Amino acid sequence: MTAFNPNLSCPDVRPPNSFHPSIDSKLKRGIDIIGALVGLTITGIIAIPIMIIMAISDPGPLLYNQVRCGLHGRPFRIWKFRSMVVGADKMKHLVKNEAQGHIFKNTNDPRITCLGAFLRKTSLDEFPQFWNVLMGDMSLVGTRPPTMDEVEKYDSHHWERLNVKPGITGEWQVNGRSSIKDFEDIVKMDLHYQQKWSLWYDLSLIIKTVLVVVNKEGAY
């Protein structure tokens, strides 16, 4: 595992007086902790077969990590089960970006391994993020956590999406997932989530996420 570099920092994009009630909600945090503990238990179970298959089909680290920008631009290291070949980040410039705006997507990204394609289709690659939730860097429900290079290109109206913690799931997860290729659509969903937020809305998005994942909708 790569150690976290405390000197890394996301651009300071926090707008003045930015505040969202979900940040200080003890009930939301309580749900996050319970969900994270359950999720990590499942993660520990599925990690064993994933590790064995990966060792056979594509030897390399079990986990992939990357620095993302979280609440108010605070950097944190996100964790996933590795779904691409080793050194995939260095090959990114060789892959065509099919998305619009400050995101990167490719339907048939050649860097994705056979096992990785399965992990992404079933969203199993996301399970190590329950550790990020337990540590408080993420929430079960929130916004898509952007990369540092994405945030560097933000316009003023994009900053608002960082007023809540990033989430394992959110509006984007239940309304198209990877099929959403326009960054502005993601921003609209993130801001819509902030406007509609309540504990009940979080729970409804979690339920919808389970249904979407079971049906394997919009993931690649």
Features of the shown structure:
single chain, two-stranded parallel ribbon, globular
Mean pLDDT: 88
Based on DSSP secondary structure assignment, what is the total number of beta strands? 4
| Spatial gap, N to C terminus | 25 Å
CA-based gyration radius: 17 Å
Strand content: 5-15%
Series of secondary-structure elements, N-terminal to C-terminal: HEEHHEHEHHH
Poorly predicted segments: none
Largest sheet data: 2 strands, antiparallel
- Counting DSSP H or I runs of 4 or more residues, the number of helices is 7
Helix % is 25-40%
C-alpha geometry: globular
Q: Going across the major beta sheet, what is the strand order? A: 1-2
Task: Outline the structure in words.
The chain has helices at about 25-55, 115-120, 130-135, 150, 170-175, 185-195, 200-215; strands at about 65-70, 75-80, 140, 165-170. About 40% of the residues lie in helices and about 10% in strands. The model has no long low-confidence stretch (mean pLDDT about 90). The chain starts with about 25 loop residues before the first helix and ends in a 6-residue tail after the last helix. Helix 1 runs antiparallel to helix 3 (about 130-135). The protein has 7 helices and 4 strands. The protein has one domain (about 25-215). It has about 220 residues and is mainly α. Strand 3, helix 4 (about 150) and strand 4 (about 165-170) form a beta-alpha-beta unit. It has a two-stranded antiparallel sheet. The chain has a two-stranded parallel sheet with strand order 3-4.
